[in-house]
Design a protein that fits this description.
- The chain has about 220 residues and is of the alpha/beta class.
- The protein has a single domain, classed as Vaccinia Virus protein VP39 (Rossmann fold, 3-Layer(aba) Sandwich), CATH 3.40.50.150.
- The chain is about 45% helix and about 20% strand.
- The chain is built from eight helices and seven strands; from the N terminus they run H-H-H-E-H-E-H-E-H-E-H-E-H-E-E.
- The protein has a seven-stranded mixed β-sheet, with helices on both faces.
- Helix 2 packs antiparallel against helix 5, helix 3 runs parallel beside helix 4 and helix 6 packs parallel to helix 7.
- The chain is globular, with a radius of gyration of 17 Å.
Length: about 220
């Protein structure tokens, strides 16, 4: 199918089901103005995360990869009263922008932004969480996806949902080029996810305004 048609259909779906309000639009605008990379999820993908969190009845959410807080806002809005979200961001500048965006959207009281390399901060976050997470969304550096999964498995319960973005990479996972570390890491992660008998999982292939990629969706048995 033509890429332009796929984009048009994506925008049609967003116009019906995932219209950005002023706070979400401002989060994008402020992130771009601050020079953050324009790699956040789309509005439709945000609505999908929101619905998955609602369906799972998530009260405790962990996110790896905050960027400007766009996906964080979608997830935080799915939380019930008393719910909590912890989001990990490598770049201090990104975290600063995200905190401002979260405050503007009125969800800052539900969210803790942790700054630093996730492999270093995640063990302490898990230890201090006070219980398992109901939903985990991974959208950070791809080369560490498998390492993140190994740590995350110690922070979830039966019924928890684990999501990982960018695991198809325009089909590059079928045969990663030697220099494409992210595609190779995504392929390894997908294999690890499929082989873990503690999980039941699938990859949802996605096309549209964000190009061709995929979201891994897993449930802890």
């Amino acid at each position: 199918m033509d890429d332009d048609l796929l984009t048009q259909v994506d925008r049609y779906i967003d116009a019906l089901f995932a219209v950005e309000d002023a706070d979400l639009a401002a989060a994008l605008a402020k992130s771009r103005a601050a020079g953050l990379p324009d790699i956040q999820i789309s509005a439709g993908q945000g609505k999908f995360l929101y619905l998955l969190a609602k369906i799972a009845g998530a009260r405790r959410i962990l996110e790896l990869g905050t960027l400007g807080g766009y996906s964080t806002i979608w997830l935080a809005r799915a939380l019930p009263e008393g719910g909590r979200l912890v989001t990990l961001e490598y770049e201090a500048r990104h975290a600063e922008v995200a905190r401002a965006n979260l405050a503007r959207a009125g969800v800052a009281d539900k969210v803790e932004v942790v700054v630093g390399p996730a492999l270093e901060t995640l063990p302490a976050v898990i230890a201090g969480a006070g219980g398992p997470f109901d939903l985990v969304f991974v959208d950070a550096d791809k080369v560490n996806y498998s390492n993140y999964l190994r740590l995350i498995m110690g922070a979830v319960r039966s019924g928890s949902v684990i999501l990982a973005d960018n695991v198809v990479r325009r089909g590059a996972v079928l045969g990663p080029a030697p220099a494409d570390e992210s595609a190779a890491a995504a392929r390894d992660f997908n294999a690890l996810l499929a082989a873990d008998d503690r999980l039941e999982a699938v990859i949802l292939q996605q096309v549209g305004v964000k190009g061709h990629d995929g979201l891994a969706i897993a449930r802890v048995r």
